[in-house]
Amino acid sequence: MKRIGVLTSGGDAPGMNAATRAVVRTGIYHGLKVMGIGQGYKGLIEGNISEMNLSSVADIIHRGGTKLRTARSEEFKTEVGLKKALNVIKVFGIDGLIVIGGDGSFKGAKELNKKGIKAIGIPGTIDNDLGYTDYSIGFDTAINTVVDAISNIRDTTTSHGRANIVEVMGRNCGDIALYAGLAGGAESIIVPEEDFSSDEVCKKLIQGRNRGKLHSIILLAENMLNSYDLAKEIEYKTGISTRVTILGHIQRGGSPTAFDRIIASKMGARSVELLLEGKSSRVVGLKGNKIIDIEIDEALSTEKKFDKEVYELTKILSI
Ligand code: ATP
Question: Bridge-partner residues for 198, per DSSP?
């Protein structure tokens, strides 16, 4: 192994830069040449590749987004696109590839591996929707962003005696809503993994009102229902003025938390070591306090488990 490539792919996540930095510096430390591939698989197909040195990753550990930039590439999913990518890998003499992204990006790495390219995946997605790892890079920063937003929203909600529905990201995973809801003291948390009843939400609002509560935060995971329709329904059923805040892409940005930087640094370094050990088609992750690595297929088929205990706890704490 002499020359490795690194790319970030799919949705960006705070901490991707810290992971890139760890890959580049660990690689150079071990005497490897490290090639930075811009814009994920799109850049791989287009040959958007340049050698990185120690300074290429200076001053980025604390920055959100990804310096390598990211993209989604439909072309890469086709036979023709894959062939182009393989050709570029050959032309640039890349012996191993590190892919920082979510499950889609891992599938791409698997396809390359099937064609004989050594590839290792690092989980970078704010959604925390990968079942094989406790945390993906970016999740901790995202929930901290949501918790900060809840604090701001709570101020104005209290002043006006309103309720506020805060819609958060997660695609089909309720982790952002669940953990930000727990940390932010939300009155109700609506996630795709659990049945939802608007009557329950309303009952809780009324109970809170009756004991003098001035604010109510309802955390809603995206892609479930229309927030504005829910707000109207709540107002109609409870008489409590209800506003909607859709946090959107602010959850994707911002300086990564120390936790995200730490796991990104550890995972980045480990992924290079795996390539040096001759391993391939594996992804790194975090289980408990340990960095682990498992086969990509096994990672992709590990079902994401929703933490029901934490969900029940949020209900108890918001009575
Ligand atoms: P996020 O969870 O943040 O969206 P992701 O990695 O899951 O990240 P995707 O858009 O699903 O994001 O995938 C990123 C890229 O990976 C795609 O644009 C495509 O180029 C490649 N990819 C996805 N699925 C496959 C697949 N089945 N085969 C080959 N390549 C794939």
Answer: none
